[in-house]
């Protein structure tokens, strides 16, 4: 099931979000990461490879996707909003906020619009930062990392509403 628009989730058990961005034609890597991660409840795609996202069988997981600057001619939105446990999350690719030149615009937008967490891509660099009370999380690129290894992200939300972000490294013997 594809999420679109703004959603509010009420969870009473731990939930795991698989966060993927910037696959750029390497759809098979999404499935490999899903097999590596195991149990995830949601899959979030943050743009640049929307056709890879569409070609992947998520096996009934709830999914959400936004378009990136390389996703021409698609009907996916630039941003999505998710509210969970009193937190307001923004999903975006990041190019419209100029994230390659810094995170201040994204953090300011989030603060002004009540978001306390933003998930973004575009830089191809895995990172987690906190600016002006806003957590900014980038899973990195699953195919073309600008630094280090190809990566993905995980967001675990526990029963008490605590959020834990982590990065995973994509590993393959065949690239």
- Topology-level CATH name: Purple Acid Phosphatase, chain A, domain 2
- Mean pLDDT across residues: 90
Quick one: biggest sheet? 6 strands, mixed
Write the CATH architecture name: 4-Layer Sandwich
Would you mind describing this structure in some detail?
With 175 residues, the chain is α/β, with parallel strands linked by helices. The chain has helices at 27-37, 50-55, 104-112; strands at 2-3, 6-9, 15-20, 42-45, 62-65, 79-84, 87-92, 117-119, 127-131, 134-138, 151-157, 163-169. The chain has one domain (2-169): Metallo-dependent phosphatases (Purple Acid Phosphatase, chain A, domain 2), CATH 3.60.21.10. It is built from 3 helices and 12 strands. The strands form 2 sheets. It has a 6-stranded mixed beta sheet, with helices on one face. A 6-stranded mixed beta sheet has the order 2-6-7-8-10-9, covered by helices on one side. Helix 1 (27-37) links the parallel strand 3 and strand 4.
